[in-house]
Amino acid sequence: MQIIELTVTLEHVKPTVLRIIEVPLGIRLDQLHLTLQAAMGWENAHLYMFMAADSRWGVPDPAFGGDELPASETTLEEALSRSNVKTLQYLYDFGDDWMHRIDAGKISDANSGKSYPNLTEADGKCPPEDVGGAPGYEEFLEAMTDTKHSEHKKFKDWHGDIFAPNKLETEKLKLDVLKLAK
After folding, report:
1. What residues does each domain of the chain span?
2. What is the CATH number of domain 2-126+166-178?
3. Closest by alpha carbon to 107, among 3, 29, 9?
4. Per-residue model confidence as pLDDT tens for the chain (182 residues)
5. Are 52 and 88 in contact (CB under 8 A)?
C-alpha cells in the first residue's frame, strides 16, 4: 500500500489552521472527507465537495442540479491523476463555505507498524461550526477576546466556554483520525 502525505490548510482564517495527515493513496474521497472532518475537528454536519481543475466530487443530488462526480466512487489517486494537479480544494459547509487547500506531498510505502489514516501535525484550532464562515469567525474571535465587545456575551452564551484559537486538543484529533483506520 502506498501512503501520501497531505498538508491541509483552512483558507481565509487567522490564526492559521493547518493539518498534516498521511492517508492511503487509494483512499476514496468520501473516506478522505471523514478523515478531514476528524483531523480538523469539524462535526460532519454539512455537505462537502472536492475540486480540482474542472472536476468536482461530492454527494450528487439531482434535485439540487449538481454535476459533481460521486466521492464514494473516486479515489484520491484518481482525482489527482484525472486533474493532473498536486492540489485539491475541499469545501465544507455550503453556507459557511469553509475552503481547505490540500497539497499532495511525498508518496511512500506504508510502514507496517503504523495505522492509516494518521494525523502527524496540527496547528491552530478549527472555528466553531455555524459561526458564519471566515467573516463570522473573525467577528467571533474579536468578541470572545474582548470582554467589552458588544457581542461578547452573545458569543460566549452561544459557544459556551472560552475559545482559544491556538490551543487545540492534538491528541484527541489524532485519536479521532486513528479511529478511521482499517
Report:
1. 2-126+166-178
2. 3.10.290.30
3. 3
4. 999 999 999 999 999 999 999 999 999 999 999 999 999 999 999 999 999 988 999 987 666 666 788 999 999 999 998 878 899 999 999 999 999 999 999 999 999 999 999 999 999 999 999 999 999 999 999 999 999 999 999 999 999 878 899 889 999 999 999 999 96
5. yes
